[in-house]
Amino acid sequence: MAHGPWRILALPPLDAAIFRPMFADLAAEVSVPETRDREGLHAALAEAELIIGDFTGALALDADAVAAAPRLAFVQMPQVGVDSCDLAALTAAKVPVANTAGANARAVAEWAVAAAFALCRHLIWGDRRMRAGSWSQSELLGRGTREIHTQRVGILGYGAIGAEAARMFESLGCTVSYWSRRRRPDVSPAYLDLDELVGWSDILVVALPRTPETVGLLGPERLALMPQGAFLVNVARGGIAPDQAVFEALDSGRLAGAALDVFEPEPLASDHPLRSHENVLLSPHVAGATGQAQLNILSQVAANIAAAVNGAPVINVVNDVAPRIHRRLPDGSLAE
């Protein structure tokens, strides 16, 4: 039975004309919501079959959105994180959700290493003093500059990003250990229990996905386990290390510095005390934003959408749904 072209709904804040060349060779039509709000999203969902998720999180696919999309067959997120998707609702609807695992792993890992260098040598602090007219050689040295190879680096989460960061830190001569929810017997860094890793790490790199189990994982009590004067580098998601807990650990001196690319909520409030703390390197959630990474993401998105349209299995499915995509009728039943 012929069903016409597949209907692709692109939710990122980009014009549909940007997406159409990506799928010009497919039997598919691309549209975007008329308005970037709940009403516009729900109106567009009525006919959507394949969705490219919104990397900003503004157009979240919550349970109500899933219910408004009876023909939905597949969701492709253009990023690693899927926290803007209600995975339980999508799984119950038998809709596979895929991410772009590994596409920006190198970019994010490089940011983590660069941030660790900046913290060890107090580069941001020194730059601020120079711009203010100072020449603070002895004062900067007195802050405790360190060579990175002397630091014990803990990697919290050992997915594609964590593994790449571990490889880079090891190549610099650092002793590296890790913790993840699934132990990896075939990797070189030593595995430590969570609290042991936190208490061991001179530099703790957070590279975990945000899930109900990881929200608040690095709260005040666990941050207090870190060695006095340790550094925190967060390239994961906001809320895993709550902003207020990180600020308090900095203010107490438990943390000598932090490099933060993620916050909760985003953007970070203009009057948040983290913005004025001199021992913080702040970044607007761009650790993975390189030209190479963006091309990798677009390539994975295009390949998975093409696989869905052509009847091939999609890759990087993160929920427990079979990876072969089937069209649906307006009542939600499978098309023949």
What features would you highlight for this structure?
single chain; 336 residues; alpha/beta; Rossmann fold; 2 domains; seven-stranded parallel beta sheet; five-stranded parallel beta sheet; 12 helices; 12 strands; elongated
Short structural summary:
This protein is about 30% helix and about 15% strand. It has about 325 residues and is α/β, with parallel strands linked by helices.
Describe the structure.
With 336 residues, the chain is of the alpha/beta class. It has helices at 16-19, 38-45, 63-67, 87-92, 105-120, 123-131, 137-142, 160-171, 194-200, 220-223, 243-252, 291-310, and strands spanning 6-10, 28-31, 50-52, 74-76, 97-98, 152-156, 175-179, 190-191, 203-206, 230-234, 255-260, 280-282. The protein has two domains: 6-102 and 291-310, 3-Layer(aba) Sandwich (Rossmann fold); 105-282, NAD(P)-binding Rossmann-like Domain (Rossmann fold, 3-Layer(aba) Sandwich), CATH 3.40.50. The strands form two sheets. It has a seven-stranded parallel β-sheet with strand order 8-7-6-9-10-11-12, with helices on both faces. Strands 2-1-3-4-5 form a five-stranded parallel β-sheet. Helix 10 (220-223) links the parallel strand 9 (203-206) and strand 10 (230-234). The radius of gyration is 22 Å and the shape is elongated.
